[in-house]
Amino acid sequence: MQKKPRILIIATSAATMTGSDKPTGLWLEELTTPYYAFLDAGAEVTLASIAGGKIPVDPNSVKPRGENDPSVERALNDRVFQTLIGDTLRFDTLDTMSFDAIMLPGGHGTMFDYPESAELAQLVADFDAAGKVVAAVCHGPAGLVSARRADGTPVVAGRRVAAFTDSEEQAVGLADAVPFLLTTRLKKLGARIEAGPDFEPFAIRDGNLVTGQNPASAEPIAALVFEALEEAKVA
Question: Where is the DJ-1/PfpI domain (predicted)?
Fold first, then answer.
């Protein structure tokens, strides 16, 4: 019998943008789409967060019932899922290296707590060094910016990476609200940024590193994660 892949999803715990009371958090589709894709494919999925407790959901990512992405609609009607996001464990209290993949969903909240988490940076570096799958979508690659290899070089240096583009940030009117522009920062760290048209699905894989550009990229991200896991002989 093949071993079920174990996937750890780590969400933001930032409910407001630092320096203001503007609400932010997780962009729900970026969690629900891969979450259900992983579950439906038979993976063992654990949901955690940076600080533990309730995961803040960006109110802009949830429309009236019946008007959302199918995975969001499913989540809104899923009592088990609602219980899970209502009370998560801090990711660093888990045996993180027992997982085969980590997934970092986005939302603007990630821009405020992912880069500041030394524990997340170390986990990303450890996973990458071990050849385990590291996946991030939209603003999720904010969790990559502080990760360093053993020699001190950025984990993203020389790697093909997709993330929420500067032009997309300008389009949503939040370029001045975030602490830095994500693709600009990743480029400065040596990442080879690739992108599709704004707000269109675009995801890429560079070995064990899987990244996607925006909420629409959450579905192709999941497929690339399984491709990477298959090659690692754990899927």
Answer: 30-221
Q: How many helices (H) and strands (E) does the chain have?
A: 8, 9
- Asked if residue 32 lies in contact with residue 72, where contact means CB atoms within 8 angstroms, the answer is yes
Q: Is 59 helix (H, G, I), strand (E, B) or coil?
A: helix
The closest of 60, 59, 31 to 47, measured between CA atoms, is: 31
Report residue 129 as tokens: 């060094």
pLDDT-flagged residues of the chain (< 50): 1, 234-235
- What is the rounded distance in angstroms from the CA atom of residue 15 to the CA atom of residue 25? 5
* Distance from C-alpha of 230 to C-alpha of 228, rounded to nearest angstrom: 5
- 101 beta partners: 7, 133
What is the rounded CA–CA span in Å between residue 209 and residue 5?
16
Three-class secondary structure of residue 106 per DSSP: coil
Residue-level pLDDT at 232: 80
| Element spanning 131, H or E | none
> Is the pTM of the predicted complex or chain greater than 0.90?
yes
Q: What single-letter amino acid sits at 56?
A: P
Give dist(CA 140, CA 153) in Å, integer: 20
β-bridge mates for residue 209, sequence order: 134, 206
Distances (CA, A) of 136 to 21, 78, 205, 221: 26, 24, 11, 8
Is the distance from CB of 136 to CB of 144 less than 8 angstroms?
A: yes
Q: Which two tokens stand for residue 131?
A: 């050849």
Asked if 139 and 164 touch (Cβ cutoff 8 Å), the reply is yes
Partners of 26 in the beta sheet? 57
